[in-house]
Amino acid sequence: MRLFLLGMVLVAVSMSGCKKEESPPAAGALRVSLSYATFQPSCLTLKVEDREDPSRTESTPVTVAAGVRSDTRTVAVLGREGWSRNLRLTATAHERSCAGPVVAEQSVEAQVPEVGVADARLDLRAEDLDNDEYVSATGPRPGTDCDDSRADVHPGATELCDGIDNNCVNGEADAPGTQEFWPDLDGDGYGDRDAVAVRFCVQPGNTASRGGDCNDSNAAFHPGQEESRCDGLDEDCDGVTDDDAFAVGASCATDLGCAGVTKCQSVSASVCVSTEQPVTWYLDEDGDGSAGTESALRCASPAPGASTTRSDCDEGTRFVSSTGTEVCDRLDNDCDGTRDNGVAGCDTATWSVDTDVGAADAEWNAVAPYGDTTGWLAGEAGRVLHVDGSTFTLVTSCPGNWRAAWAASNGRVFLGSAAGKLATVAAGALDSCAEVSGPGSSSINGMVGFEQDTTVRVFAVDSQGRIIRWVYVEGATSQAAPELVTQVPANLRAIHGLTPETLLVVGAEDVGGTSVPAAWRSPSSGSTWPKESLGVASATGFLRAVRVLTPTLAYVAGDGGLLLERSGTTWAAKPALTVAGTGVVDLRALLAVGRTGIYAVASGPNDIHFFDGAAWSSVTVPPHRLNALEGTRPDRLWGAGSSGTLVRWRP
C-alpha cells in the first residue's frame, strides 16, 4: 500500500524535560530528533527531500531555546499525498542568522512507516567555546571566530592596536592609528611601488613606511636622491632616466650656441649634442647699426646687433659702414675701398691756422672743443681761452699752469693744473672760474668726463698715479670736493673711456730706475684697477695718450713712436712713427677716430701725422709744435701748442 505525506505537518516537541508521550497519528510518521552541542545555532532548519523525486522538497525552521548551547529538538514528519515514503532528511545550522555561514550540517535517509511512528536522528556539532555567538573558524564547517578562546575577539568587535586581530579581518590593518607599509626587500628605506601597501600598527620587518621604489631588488635605486650615473637607468625613480645634473633629453645649447639635446658622454658626465653647423658672426662694436668685427663661429648671435653678414669695414667709428655716405674726413664712409671718393674739394681741404692766439708766447697744453666752432684752450701762466669761431676770449680768473681740459656739451670746461688743482668755467660766465683743491698736489695731466642729466662726473689722473673723480651738479648751491678713486704706482699722463666702466689710464712705472710704459683699466667689480699686459716688454719711456673707441677697441701712444691697439683683451703693436731724417720720434698726443683714422703729433717735426691702419703720412705742417689734439667728429679736428698756435680742420 502506497503512503502519502499529509500536508507535510512538522511538529516540534522538546525532549529536554519529562513530557507525556502522545499517541502516534493514524497514518505512519517519522519522529526526527535534532541534537546540537557546544554552540547555539541562530538559524536551524530541517530539509525533507523525496529520494525518488528530488524535485519534491520542503524546508522548515526549527525553533531553538535562547541561551541554550546544547539541546535536542524533535520534529514529526507525516506523509503527504504524491510523495514516496523514502525520504532524505538534512539538518543545517547557521552562525548568527540564516544568512550566516553554515557551521554544522548532517543528512540521513529514512522511511515513513505505513502505520505507526519511526525514529530518525540528526546530530550537529560546532564549537563556540568562548560563548560569543561566533563559531570557531576551524573544522570542516568553519565559522568566523578567529580566536574561540576570547569572547572579545570575533567579527564585529572593535579593532585595536593591541597586537590582536580583534575583528578577525585583515589583522590590525583596520585599526585606528595604523600606518601603510610597503615591502622593502633591498632595505633602502623605500618600498616596492608596484606592491599593495598594507596597514599595520607596528612596522613589520622588511617593510618601509614610504613607497615609490622602482627597483626593490637594488638598494641603489629609490626616490629621494639625485641621479649619480649617466647610464640610461632611473636611479631616483622619478620616471625620467639620467635627469638632475645630467639633464639627459633636455633641450640645450652648445658652447657655440647651437641648439641640441643633452646626452650621456660617460657614466659621470653628459654633453650637449647638436646637428646645427656654426657660422661666422660679425659684431657691431661701434654702435652704428652695422656689424664688422669678426667673431668666433657660432650658431646663435653672440651679442645684440650681431649679423652673419659683414656690413662695416671699420668697427672703430660710427661714421663708417656699408650703408654710409661718403664725406670728406679721410675715412672710407661707405666701405667701397676708397676714402673721400666723389667728395668735391676734399683733396684741397686745408687746415686753418691761427697763431698768437691769447698771446704770442702762449703755451697751450690742452684743447677741448664742444661744438663745430666752439671750444677751449688751456695752458701755462694762468691762460684759459674760450674759442667761438674766430673770436678768442681770455678768462682772467683762473690762475695756474693748466695741463688738462675737458668740455661738457653745454660748454662748461673742467681744468686740471700742475699743482693738483681743478677748476671749471661756464661758456656763458667767463669771468667766474671756480677753483678747488684735488686730493694731491701733483700735476693733473689728463681728464675726461661723462654727462647724465645735470650731473657731470669728471675723471682725472696725476703724476703720482692718482685717479681722481669730481662729481659736479650744474646749478647746485654747493659742490662736492674731488675725491681719490685709487692710486697706482705710476706717473699717469692720460685717461679716456666711453663710460666710467671702460676707462683706461696710461703713463709709466719705474722699474729699476727705468721708466716703462704701463696702463690700467677700470675694474669690472671691486675697487682694484687691473694692470694691462701690453706685450712690449722691451719698450721704455712713457705712454702719453689714450683713446677708447669701443668697449673692446682702444689705442695708446707714447715714446719711441709706440702705437698699441687693444682688440678684445689683446694688445698688439702697430707700425712706429718714423720721420725722414729724424727716425723714430716720441708721440706727444693722439686722436683716434676709427681703426683707419688715427692722428698724432710728435716730438720731431711739427707735422700732424695720420695712420690709416697700415701706414703713416703727414696731413699738415703747423708753424709751431703742437701739444694737444682733439675733435668732436672725424671732420671736426682741433690742435693746439706753442706760440699761441691753434689749427682746425673743418672741410
UniProtKB/TrEMBL annotation:
It holds the Pfam family Cu-binding_MopE. PROSITE patterns: PROKAR_LIPOPROTEIN. It comes from the Bacteria. InterPro entries: Put_metal-bd (IPR021655). This is Lipoprotein. It comes from Pyxidicoccus parkwayensis.
